[in-house]
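REQUEST FORM: STRUCTURE PREDICTION
Request ID: SP-0412
Submitted by: Lab K.M.
Chain count: 1
Length (residues): 168
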Amino acid sequence: MAMRIAVALAATIVLMSTAAEARPEMVGAHLADYSPGTIVVKTGERRLYLILDNGHAVRYPVGVGKAGKQWAGTTKIDGKYLNPAWAPPAEVKRDKPNIPDVIPGGSPRNPMGVAAMTLAGGEYAIHGTNVPGSIGGFVSYGCIRMLNDDITDLYGRVSVGTTVVVTR
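STATUS: Completed
RESULT:
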């Protein structure tokens, strides 16, 4: 019994550490419907793809919306921010009334991590995180959450106006 627990614990540690490592990957992509430069988020896969050309993309692991908080559609990046302060949206404030009205950028309690790219038409963003173990899960109120090294990489590759397509 002790051996089973040790093996399960070791597997959990490996999986947790793997989930927290920054690792954008160059992949062959069957995403020919999208133009180069488009960001495609596949929430079911918990992956974000930056389309490079007709057959290649950079793929990143992400955290996505929890049950009932997911969305799908097409939007654009309308702002880019380094070390952003964060003011919780009304829904988050309602669910967590003790949360501060603003958490300053750079604070370890700031859920935006080192960078954020806001999305037009709503309260959502593609952003970093100070909780790397959340990457790969259904964890947010609709934002796309990335490892800080990964959001830094993506931030440098895209600009305001970049098309973002979120699919299930």
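NOTES: Residues 2-19 form the longest helix (18 residues).
Reviewed by: T.R.
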